Amino acid sequence: MRRNPFDDIEELLDRLSRQVEEGMTAGGLQVPGSVPVDVADTNEEYVVTADLPGYETDDIDLTLSEGTLRLEANRTDEDTHAERRYLRRERTKTSASRRIRLPEPVDEAAVAAGFENGVLTVRLPKVSSGEDSRQIDIE
């Protein structure tokens, strides 16, 4: 008996649908070049935690403008061994970014950020204030 070719397509679509559902229930699908983040609301402040392994503090740019936290990270190629012949090369110049819209205004003057062991933590205290842009220093 001959196999129906549409069965293969239906099986493929079912598998794709399961993968999308699993990605959504696990916290969302990761977009290449996007930084995975957690945003917690502690009633007094928002705490944004982002994974940036392999980056240094100087590689990260954080700004807050009009209720949106913008995170950009750029790492340059570390090829100090040009004579090496790579069998596999995946760690090259990398850029990552993320924009997080905050649901309520925050006290921009009191925003603090820290970076330890590849994890960036930004604390954004809630208050009603102006909408000016401010550069955030990372400690």
Describe this structure in words.
- The structure is a single chain.
- The chain is of the alpha+beta class and 139 residues long.
- It folds into two domains: 1-29; 31-78 and 90-135, Immunoglobulin-like.
- It has one helix at residues 5-25; strands spanning 37-41, 45-51, 60-65, 68-75, 94-101, 112-116, 119-125, 134-135.
- The chain has a four-stranded antiparallel β-sheet, with no helix packed on it. The protein has a four-stranded antiparallel β-sheet with strand order 5-4-3-8, with no helix packed on it.
- β1 (37-41) and β2 (45-51) form a beta hairpin.
- The relative contact order is 0.20.
- The mean pLDDT is 81.
Would you state the CATH class of the largest domain?
A: Mainly Beta
- Gap between N and C termini: 69 Å
**Number of β-strand runs:** 8
CATH architecture of the largest domain: Sandwich
The multimeric state of the shown protein is single chain
Q: Strand order within the widest sheet?
A: 1-2-7-6
Compute the number of helices: 1
On the 0 to 100 scale, the average pLDDT is: 81
How many domains is the backbone divided into? 2
What do we call the CATH topology of the largest domain?
Immunoglobulin-like
User: What string, H for helix and E for strand, traces the elements in order?
Assistant: HEEEEEEEE
What Rg do the Cα atoms give? 21 Å
- Spans of at least 5 consecutive residues with low confidence: none
Largest sheet: 4 strands, antiparallel
Helix/strand class? alpha+beta
